[in-house]
Amino acid sequence: MGAGTIVVVLVLSILCNVVPSLGATFNVGGSDGWGLTGDYQTWSKGKTFKVGDSLVFKYPDGHTVNEVSESDYKSCTAANSITSDSSGTTTVALKTAGNHYFICSSAGHCAGGMKLAVNVVKDSGSTTPSSPAADATSTSPSTTPKKGSSSSAAVSLPLVPWLAMISLVAAVMI
């Protein structure tokens, strides 16, 4: 093998090990987004949220996303929110294991069901990605895009091994 082939193989090996470790992005509420008609307990059921994953809340004017304590979640109180956003698209990076609680602070919305509790587990450190839920996509870490903008940063993990194989075969043939 030539020096160029060895470099290509090393780079591809690194990419195959790094890219799968990126977290999954969960669109809260699926295609319905964050609103009064959502059933977030049902939506989150069966999903595994890991450290490094992100929650994306998409919602119209008149709603907020507030991360709150468990007691504030239960009482629908946003006065002591950990974070608060009303931009229309809020991305929350799940950086710590444990329970995380989110509510809408608009009058009556939390009491009407606009609240979400998720249990975030520590990533096992495995380089093999878990199977994300149907409405989750694996992406690179991102910031909340401005209202009206879109992002095309999504990376489809099943594609990465195929690209690696094609590149490896091409490198060996050269």
Automatic annotation (TrEMBL):
Question: Does Metal-binding appear among the keywords?
Answer: yes
**Signal peptide (UniProt feature, chain positions):** 1-23
Task: Show the coiled coil region(s).
Answer: none
UniProt keyword Transmembrane helix present? yes
**Which is a Gene Ontology cellular component entry for this protein?**
plasma membrane
Q: Where are the transmembrane segments?
A: 153-173
Keyword terms:
Glycoprotein, Membrane, Metal-binding, Signal, Transmembrane, Transmembrane helix
Any Pfam family from its record, for instance, is Cu_bind_like
All copies of domain Phytocyanin, residue ranges: 24-122
Region Disordered, as annotated, extends over 126-152
GO MF assignments: electron transfer activity; metal ion binding
What protein name is recorded for this chain? Phytocyanin domain-containing protein
Q: Which organism is it from?
A: Cuscuta europaea
> What taxonomic classification does the UniProt entry list for its organism?
Eukaryota, Viridiplantae, Streptophyta, Embryophyta, Tracheophyta
